[in-house]
Here is the input.
Amino acid sequence: MAQRAGRIVMLVQNGVVGDSRVQKEAASAAAAGWEVFLLGRTDKRAEEWDLGGATVRLVPTGRDFDKRRHEVRRPWLRSPFAYPPGPLESYRRKQVQAWNADLAYEKARLKADPSAAGSLALAGRTFAVKVASGWIKARTRLSRRVRERRERATAPVDRIAFRFWKAALGDRAWRRLDPALWDLELAFAPVVDALEPDLIHANDFQMLGVGARAKARAAAAGRDVKLVWDAHEFLPGMKPWKDHPWWHAAQVAHEREFAPFADAVVTVSEPLADLLVAEHGLATRPAVVMNTPDIPAQGDWSDADEVPDLRELCGIGKTVPLMIYSGVPLVQRGIHIMVEALPQLPEVHAALVLSKHHWAYVRSLMARADELGVADRVHLLDHVPHHQVVRFVAAADIGVSPNHHHQNHEISLNTKFFDYSHARLPLVVSDVKTIAAEVRRTGQGEVFRAEDTADFVRAVAKVLEDPESYRRAYAEKVPLEEWTWAAQARVLDGVYRGLVGGRA
Here is the structure.
């Protein structure tokens, strides 16, 4: 049996399946001779499967710390008559229902067997229940308002608490501002420790702390474990995942506390590498590992599995103009511009290949399409496995990347850009800095002003006038050989071997 290079434990805070980057990292590391365990998060039962020689394991992770400590305490100062967090409020509302049910029973009994004394007693009880019910409803309203105010965290007491914890604890303040990060630690720490890795690859900012603490525990036990931090985004410039005003500051503090534990940093673009060096004072510049497609040698797909027919799923023929978006459905990704443009592009169809069809944003896209009378030309489709994406999207006429202006959108070439490029699609992209500059350099598409529907319509119409002129760029100026996962995997393997070498 061939000797393994060493054991790598990869950490990611999602369910793995929708994350092409971590899947490619795990499979390519296994192919390079590493023993790989990829640990992801699940809210359900544990799962495990093989991925190209790597073992994927989903770790059941609770949400016990989703509420901050003050949110589980009685609000004596904010609203002393509100119910304390817990089951009492619900219990009291049910109690009112039970009292009313008992009164209804007594009324029915008295109707069958009237008595003055019974009627007087019932009147007294009815009055008492009415008073108690009013009091309980009032306290319930107070409780609801307290919860809403705590969720917004905009009251003076919240602002004072926020400033106090930041001043008192510095980068350790995340423990108070967003204790939900502990849920990851409590779930993943025992799994990582039991695997005794030689190297931990922590994807993104939330898993950095899990990896750093595992490294520290291993050192205390006499084992030298290396930590690679894979920074997918520039956290200080990121649009927060959650609405709570403390969340973003907590994540930034958490990243600053644990970034020094990383033995090496990798990231997705050169501009992001510059930002990370400046933000964390890194002594060594991060290695750049772009999230490019896993393309077979010489682009030979003959041994690959069959891919769904995009146009068949849309119910359209080969000559119908089709633009496509493939990715996560977030407002800042600007997908709605495709729907808004369709009334001005009467022959064009739009394929939206999205995860999370139940999200409000996705529902709003389809509702808007119906309002505009273009619902028959908007096709909501499920993702295909990451190794099928290039061949799947190739059936479209235009690949769309309509990002809004946010710092992380400006500094890298995104995954869909590489997928569209390997599919040799003419592109229509918003004028976010890095992608727009590349498209202008290569001539593989048109650039429009972000959030400008009229300019988007112009760009789409121009591409459809002569799509072959944009496709020719792929033979002349687009460095597709560099934009393959095989090239990126060699960089990542070099990082691993520079830290661990060939441990057995």
User: Anything to note?
Assistant: The chain has 20 helices and 14 strands. The longest strand covers residues 35-42.
